[in-house]
Design a protein that fits this description.
Arc Repressor Mutant, subunit A, three-stranded antiparallel β-sheet, elongated, 7 helices, mainly alpha, 10% strand
Length: 163
């Protein structure tokens, strides 16, 4: 490593990000759209169910692209579009039984990916790093929000917490 990169936040984030992406791409290889498809499946598994527009806004995915990704997930019986009882013109995107099982399996695989990427750190340091990174990400998100993704992350954690 060049001495002038030591301590460079952009370089460090980039290296860790690339390691995570490479490993998570393998874990998500069977999901249409890879990470984006997984994010949509995560949104569909959350409560309360949301429509395509809300999911597109939350994830920062163009609505046109989102429609194709949902179509692909629907073909694999991972999600379904259901009429919104509050607005008959709108469709809610919900995870199917197969979709929830797939989502849970993928979460388990991604936990292994995270453990692998964070393996150079002692467990306590990894937990502290993730807590600090969460604070940093939530602060950055609040400065340039798509929506409050920190609330979304908390909801996902609550849904996926072991019973």
């Amino acid at each position: 490593m060049a001495a002038n990169l030591e301590g460079d936040l952009g370089w460090m984030l980039g290296v860790v990000f690339r390691a995570y992406v490479k490993a998570s791409d393998h874990a998500l290889r069977d999901v249409p759209g890879g990470p984006r498809g997984y994010q949509i499946l995560t949104a569909a598994a959350g409560e309360p169910p949301r429509n395509q527009g809300a999911i597109a806004e939350d994830l920062g995915i163009d609505r046109t692209v989102l429609t194709y990704l949902i179509d692909d997930l629907e073909r694999l019986d991972l999600v379904a579009r259901q009429p919104d009882p509050a607005d008959r013109r709108s469709r809610l995107v919900v995870a199917t039984t197969e979709g929830r099982a797939t989502w849970q399996r993928l979460q388990d695989e991604l936990r292994r990916v995270e453990a692998h990427v964070l393996s150079p750190l002692p467990a306590a340091d990894a937990a502290s790093f993730l807590a600090l990174l969460s604070q940093l990400a939530c602060q950055a998100q609040s400065l340039d929000p798509l929506t409050n993704l920190c609330e979304v992350a908390e909801q996902v954690k609550a849904v996926s917490a072991p019973s």
